[in-house]
Amino acid sequence: MEGRLKSVLAALNFKNLTMIFSLWAVSPRNFGGLSYTTSDVGEVLAITGFALLLFQLFLYPLVEKILGPVMVSRIGAVLTIPLLSSYPYIAMLSGLCLFLVLNCASALKNVFSVSITTGLFLLQNRAVSQERRGAANGISMSAQSLFKAIGPVAGGSL
């Protein structure tokens, strides 16, 4: 039960951050945003998606074999805190430096998100017997979907 709760809360948190990222990037600089255009945001998200694809295909399986899913999830959760805390300082940058740092931060945020979620799924699947695995995954995915639907509403109200 604890693993399911953690994966649901992680889904809510990262869904909120994903929705807020685009709003923050297109907001004017005098409000703390980046004054990016929608095409600039799309470019950042495309680069992030490509980096995430490479990470999931090549790096995550290696890291998970070495450290295990628990340690991968813990490291991802701990490193997410200083990364997200650095976003206000990222807004102070400009030009090429902003572009590079923002792409790296966005890719890392999503890599950490995927690491946490995948690690928790692996833990859940290894903790549940084969006969109950489908039910456990169904409950977990339903709860995550519910929180992913609530996330944008909660994030938007902030």
UniProtKB/TrEMBL annotation:
Residue ranges crossing the lipid bilayer per the database entry: 7-24, 44-63, 75-101
Q: PANTHER family, alphabetically? A: MAJOR FACILITATOR SUPERFAMILY (MFS) PROFILE DOMAIN-CONTAINING PROTEIN, MAJOR FACILITATOR SUPERFAMILY DOMAIN-CONTAINING PROTEIN 10
Keyword entries, A-Z: Membrane, Transmembrane, Transmembrane helix, Transport
Q: Under which name does UniProt file this protein?
A: Uncharacterized protein
State if Membrane is listed as a keyword.
yes
Give the chief site where it resides. Answer: membrane
The record ties this protein, via InterPro entries, to: MFS_trans_sf
Topology of the protein relative to the lipid bilayer: Multi-pass membrane protein
Q: Which GO terms describe its cellular component?
A: membrane
Origin: domain of life: Eukaryota
The organism's lineage is:
Eukaryota, Viridiplantae, Streptophyta, Embryophyta, Tracheophyta
Where in or outside the cell is it found? Membrane
Family designation: Belongs to the major facilitator superfamily. Phosphate:H(+) symporter (TC 2.A.1.9) family.
Where along the sequence do coiled-coil regions lie? none
**Keyword presence, Transmembrane helix:** yes
